[in-house]
Automatic annotation (TrEMBL):
It is found in: Membrane. This is CKLF factor. Keywords: Membrane, Transmembrane, Transmembrane helix. InterPro entries: Marvel, MARVEL-CKLF_proteins.
């Protein structure tokens, strides 16, 4: 919702196209990952480690959001651009939290689970 709000602020304020493009791309990618996890497609398509792809997306999005939103806040051509920049910085924090939580969820050296309880 924050990504969509950021996108709508940038579009409504007639901000630079790069601002709206980044926010729109992040909104689309977030919706695709949400659908992937809701429909359990990550369990069916095992060719890719989906949480790792989600971490990669979150880190790259956070880097791009940092640059774009700082430019939007510094230049602040109007109030919509400023609101989009602030919402984008909130989205940046959420992307970093998502990446950290997913890193904690993925542990490559954990012991394998057993089907039957140990005697």
């Amino acid at each position: 919702l924050v990504a969509l709000s950021t996108f709508l602020c940038f579009v409504a304020s007639s901000a630079h196209e790069a601002y709206a493009a980044l926010a729109g791309m992040e909104t689309g990618i977030t919706v695709l990952f949400l659908l992937l996890y809701l429909l359990r497609l990550d369990k069916r398509m095992r060719c890719l480690l989906w949480p790792l792809a989600d971490i990669f997306n979150s880190v790259i999005a956070a880097l791009f959001l940092l640059v774009v939103c700082l430019f939007a806040i510094i230049l602040r051509t109007n109030k919509g651009t400023l609101a989009g920049g602030v919402l984008g910085l909130i989205l940046l924090v959420l992307c970093l939290v998502d990446a950290i939580l997913l890193c904690k969820k993925i542990r490559f050296n954990r012991p394998r689970e057993r089907n039957a309880p140990a005697k």
